[in-house]
Amino acid sequence: MSVKHPLMVVGTADRNLIVFNLQNPQTEYKRIVSPLKYQTRCVAAFPDQQDHCFHADTIEY
Q1: What is the pLDDT of residues 2-54, one digit of tens each?
Q2: CA separation (Å) from 35 to 32, 40, 52, 61?
Q3: Keywords of this protein's UniProt record, alphabetized (predicted)?
């Protein structure tokens, strides 16, 4: 999980990345299936010009 206001990115065990807008945290902003082959190990959120960008890492070798 990573937070960079106003977005929070959560990596799930089933390879989903769920983005929440913290101004309306009860509903998902976006759900993305990870392009990585294995479970997400860590995720980091950082702003781009539209204030929504993130990086995911996995246990792949």
Answers
A1: 888 888 888 888 888 898 989 998 999 889 888 878 777 888 877 666 655 66
A2: 9, 10, 18, 15
A3: Repeat, WD repeat
